[in-house]
Amino acid sequence: MIVSLIVIVGANALGFFWPDRLVLAKLKDGSEFLGQIRGHEEILRSTLQAGVPQHRTQFQVANRDLYGSDFRWVNDEEIVSQQQPLGAIYFERWEWGPLFGTLKQITQDGHVIADGPQQSWQKFQELHPRTQEALERTRTIEREDIGDINYHLEKLRLALKSTQGSAGTEQQVTAIEKEMASWQQRYEEKSKELQTLAAENSRYRMVVQAAGGREKEMPISGVVRAFMPNQMSWGQRFGLYCSRLWEFIWHEPRESNTEGGIFPAIFGTVMMVMVMSIIVVPFGVIAALYLREYAKQGPMVRAVRIAVNNLAGVPSIVFGVFGLGFFIYLMGGSIDRLFYSEALPTPTYGTGGILWASLTLALLTVPVVIVSTEESLAAIPREWREGSLALGATKWETIRKVVLPGALPGILTGMILAMARGAGEVAPLMITGVVKLAPNLPLDSYAPFFHMERKFMHLGFHIYDVGFQSPNVEAAKPMVFMTTLLLIAIIVILNLTAITVRNRLRSRMRFGTF
Fold first, then answer.
1. How far, in Å, CA of 391 to CA of 384, rounded?
2. In this structure, are residues 486 and 14 in contact, taking their beta carbons and an 8 Å threshold?
3. Rounded distance between C-alpha atoms, residue 474 and residue 18, angstroms
4. Cα–Cα distance between 184 and 163 in angstroms, integer?
5. Cβ-count burial 266-284 (b if 16+ within 10 Å, e if not)
6. Cα–Cα distance between 475 and 369 in angstroms, integer?
7. Cα 475 vs. chain centroid, distance in angstroms?
8. Structural contact between residues 237 and 19, judged by C-beta atoms closer than 8 angstroms
9. For 315-341, how does the pLDDT look when each residue is reduced to its tens digit (9 = 90+)?
């Protein structure tokens, strides 16, 4: 069943980036449209008039801002002809999804500089790289330069507030205000550069003619890439396929997560699992060691074991509510009042973040680590302990040098199970730190470099958001399959790594039972 699920997900996901041909379909009523064939199915018998089996085809017609919908179902009997025009162009846009059509004109400052499909296409290929370079420069200024300025301005604002609140000297206040003015001047310089870049890009526009005669005018800088799929060879298609797949993995999302990449979600998922593992493994091992090696066996210990086992059956959303109340409101609020009072009422740790999400998932998965560690400790032969003690080793030395190394394969088994469950959980994360779009990664170049208080993106939540919250679910469907495939792949990679380490340890410790 699992293999079948992976095959279905993979088949639907990996075909998403392949540049299919554009088809010009003419209907009986004289209308025509341009699109890519996305599906074909038999029409339900209840909708047939004469009971004769009929079929219908789903086309992705794109041009959402012209037609109001990305997809269209057409009964096969209504289609008069289908052609694949060589000049049809696939425009992948930064906004409003793809646009299908042919180039009619290119204008500069309102004057036509290229007319007709062929001349306009050549001019477009000449201007498009230039506009994308300006766009890339714009993003660099916004994210790095202005981001750096805003970071320092916010630090100075808090320092000024703290200085004024603690009755600092007038000289200190003046020095901070002077530095703020310097950063504000840099901000104005970067703003002017942004305006220059935007004005330069707005000079070049294009007119696209869609099937049926409708036209769309837009700036050339609004196009991510454009290609003629009906003229491409298999090699060119494969190259474009790899390019789009690379962009999906390493770039940021756009269009409300329904296009672009998912790198922030991949990064957030991996980092959250690593932080959770760092927290849950030591805590779970120490608890299991105490229960097995030090605690006096009796009704109290049995009650604790029962409680731990029952904890594994608690719904995950309950852990999320606990994390919200205990970690965020209580602990985070206390940290804010003690160490970040100058930032209040804006919370620093008193709101969701990757630290609180990781701690919540650590609580959720700790029973798995405790149970597996206890079982592996119990599997250590008694002769090993007695032999070590007989040679003069203390109990702690016996545990540290004999028991724990022997139980390591079992401990890793618990960690593998905890990682697999933690990576796939979504419900507790939704109220402890996950967001639809995170403006910054938890890791950057500003001290302390790894910002545990920041919110983050997660692949599981991304699947939920795109698949069930997107206004255009049909267009987002391939993204859901692709994100699901990536989440499965990350879990498999993490587990295979841990399993490989465990198997190597098992070969050295032949008494391991896991």
1. 11
2. no
3. 17
4. 20
5. bbbbebbbebbbebbbeeb
6. 41
7. 18
8. yes
9. 889 999 999 999 999 999 999 999 888
